[in-house]
Amino acid sequence: MAEMAQCLNNGLEVAFTIDGPRGPAYEAKPGAVTLARHTGQAMLPFHIKIDRGIELSSWDRMTIPLPFSRALVLIAEPIYVPRQANSDEVRAKQAALQSALDRLRNEGEGWKAQPRE
After folding, report:
1. Residues 25/98, Cβ–Cβ less than 8 Å
2. pLDDT digits (tens, 9 = 90+) for 37-61
3. What is the predicted pLDDT for the residue at 117?
4. For residue 15, which of 48, 43, 37, 51 has the smallest C-alpha distance?
5. pLDDT tens digits, residue range 64-117?
6. How far apart are CA 30 and CA 19, in angstroms?
7. What are the phi and psi torsion angles at 77 (to 5°)?
8. pTM value?
9. Distance between CA 36 and CA 114 in Å, rounded?
């Protein structure tokens, strides 16, 4: 987390899986909100859906894209967390992040790639 903050402070972009290394799947952990609060940078919720892949039987059902797969990238509005945010504001931002991610995932699940010509 400290290294990510340093990257952000140096003008670099960072990203990580929001549900952490142990899950549960699709449940946003507080790391992104904490990082946004400490750096003043926005969280940019996104979801990527592929049309063809191999789904693993892991806890997060990770999917490995097959060659020539098509992908849909969905991005929500940025979410800012004030540096002086109190615990209620932090919880509200966490809820907003979770809501945005759920909305994007639901939208992505309904996507079907157009047939190739």
Report:
1. no
2. 999 999 999 999 999 999 998 888 8
3. 67
4. 43
5. 999 999 999 999 999 999 999 999 999 999 999 999 999 999 999 988 877 776
6. 9
7. -65, 150
8. 0.87
9. 37
DSSP the chain: -HHHHHHHHTT------TTTTT--TT---THHHHHHHHH-PPB--EEEEESSEEE-SSTT--EEEPTT--EEEEE---B---TT--HHHHHHHHHHHHHHHHHHHHHHHT--PPPP-
What are the tokens at 41? 């940078």
Nearest CA to 35 out of 9, 60, 61 is that of 9
**Domain ranges across the chain:** 2-109
Q: Are 55 and 63 in contact (CB under 8 A)?
A: yes
Could you tell me how far CA 47 lies from the centroid of its own chain? 6
